[in-house]
Each structure stands twice: as C-alpha cells, then as structure tokens.
Amino acid sequence: MEGAACCSTSTSAEKRKQRQNQEKPYRGIRMRKWGKWVAEIREPNKRSRIWLGSYTTPVAAARAYDTAVFYLRGPSARLNFPDLIFQEDDDELRDISAASIRKKATEVGARVDALQTARALHASQPKPSRVSETPDLNEYPGPENSDED
C-alpha cells in the first residue's frame, strides 16, 4: 500500500511541475488573468519586492527580470538569457538603488516588448500577392487584342 501512495505522489508532483513549466516559461515572471506578463524581484535581505513592469510578451518580462537580477546579484546571477545581458562598468554594479534597477529593467523590457510586438504584427500581416490577370485561353482575341493592324 505504501508503495502505491509513493508512486501516485511522484506522478502528481511531475504533473504539477509540467503545469508550472507551461504557465511560467521563464524565471521571475508570471501571467495575469487577462494575459499580460509581469515581472518582479525580491530585494536581497528584505521582504519588499521591486516591481519591474507589465508586458505583452513573456520574453520582454523575462528580459526585464534578467536586467534586475544581474544588477542585484552580479555576474553569478541565474539568468533566462545569459547571452543577451549587457554588462556595464563595475562601478555601476556596486552602488545601485531599487529605483535605478526598476528604471533600467523597465527600459529593457519596454524595448524588447516593442520589438516582439512589432515582429508578431509583421508576421501576422498577409503577404501582398501579385495580381496578374491570366488570359482565358478559350477566348478568341478581340479587335483590341489582335496583332493585325
């Protein structure tokens, strides 16, 4: 009996993990009921959080989170997109406030959100088709179409 309970628990844990991965594709973000993606991060050694913004795409929210976590924890931070972080001078990393972290993260997130939205809009627009009239090969040429002059 105990073995059966053990297996069912691991199965439900796996299902929960799958559902969580579907809902949260990136670290530090979540989806609102109405479809917007939000990012926030907890300040080190405090109970307060830094609000990083609300975005239309999960990638933009994840990039905002990456920017904030990089400024808070430095190069050792666990990032969603480690190759895309822009490293600045070490002087800026040492003394940075929550307000300046929020500002930098929202700038990055807004920029990525605009690019992602524009890219999605461009991809969803129909491609212009070439309008060419194909001649009806069963029709006799009229006087304006004939080669006789």
From TrEMBL:
Domain AP2/ERF: 25-82
Any one Gene Ontology BP term: ethylene-activated signaling pathway
One GO cellular component, as annotated: nucleus
Gene3D superfamilies from the UniProt entry: AP2/ERF domain
The entry's keywords: DNA-binding, Ethylene signaling pathway, Nucleus, Transcription, Transcription regulation
Family: Belongs to the AP2/ERF transcription factor family. ERF subfamily.
Source species: Juglans regia
Protein name: Ethylene-responsive transcription factor RAP2-1-like
Function according to Swiss-Prot or TrEMBL: Probably acts as a transcriptional activator. Binds to the GCC-box pathogenesis-related promoter element. May be involved in the regulation of gene expression by stress factors and by components of stress signal transduction pathways.
Localization annotation: Nucleus
Stretches the record annotates as Disordered: 1-25, 118-149
GO MF assignments: DNA binding; DNA-binding transcription factor activity
PROSITE patterns: AP2_ERF (PS51032)
